[in-house]
Amino acid sequence: MRIAVIGAGPGGLYTACLVKRLRPHDVVEVWEANAARDTFGFGVVFSDGALGGIEAADPALFEAVTAEFARWTRIDVHYRDRTQRNEGYGFAAVSRHTLLRLLQERCAGLGVRLHFGTRAPEVARLRASHDLVVAADGVGSRTRARYAAAFGTERQEAGSRYMWLGTDRPFDALTFAVVETQHGPVQAHAYPYAPGRSTFIVEVGDAVWRAAGFRSAERRPADPVGDRDGIDEVARYFSGLLDGHALWGNRSYWGRFTAVRNRNWSHGNLVLLGDSAHTTHFSIGSGTKLAMEDGLALATALHEHRTVPEALAAYEAERRPAVERMQRTALTSLEWFENIDRCVGLPPDAFNAHLLTRSGRLTRDDLPAVDAEHVGRIRRRFADAA
Q: Are 217 and 176 in a shared domain?
């Protein structure tokens, strides 16, 4: 079988890696418009429950990735000069650059053909020359857009704005922080991903964003750092939390989260995977996890079914229910943060409780647990893989 993957993010590379483990005689090619060393964003976070499947599917990759992990077991909430520490959670994170490098190395070692700095051939040509084309080209997928009617694509932008940043402030927990500015509340989501490195996502309601005088990317010249003035203003807002540490960007501009859903995940021999198929709000930290779980389900479906249509039907049947549950959870979280001003003003203990439970609809139980039976099935599937 000949398989083409469009997009070399974690989902696309992991899919290619697992297909070659299960089906070493298949020809698997990956195309990525950016160079191999180019990456955007900072850290990638996983809950403990997300790691069992990765370990079972590819122990060598799991060992390499987890050796680079930053780990923590706490959620901190900074609000009105008080820090509430909430223990009993399990998370890990890794640099996105490191994760991609390890996935690239694993793919190359297994014989995947990697084409970096090269746009994929036109999708109609790929569909004619390959048995399967995997669209793993992200939330703005051109591949999906080409067949939007067939996929039944729905896109909805959030009302708030956000910007993805990095800092050398060494956080030691998943951290939520709120500052009350003269224009209204501004919140940050932060977590460590490497020694002396943390992801720092700032989010602000649209009315506050406008009142503060921030500007959109369209009104600024291209800059590899991003919105320098906006970054400086965010650093000023969160100076107490940053405690003298710096904020920096990587093509970091204000954007809106886009919820993506598709009525169909496949169209003939073309299939969607990861953010091209579905998105979840960053406040629940599951985008990379879901993309990699998609890759695992697709690889095993191809291995276990005789034809591509059967495999694609099995892939969607397995993944859609889990994804839709996560999207509902993410929507609840998004709505809470978009309406955070309803809770700002509560006493710190009450605010902490509201944030953790998202008004009683989210609890610790919503964090995915390790499903031992599911992990066992994955381990058996890969037991005879190369």
A: yes
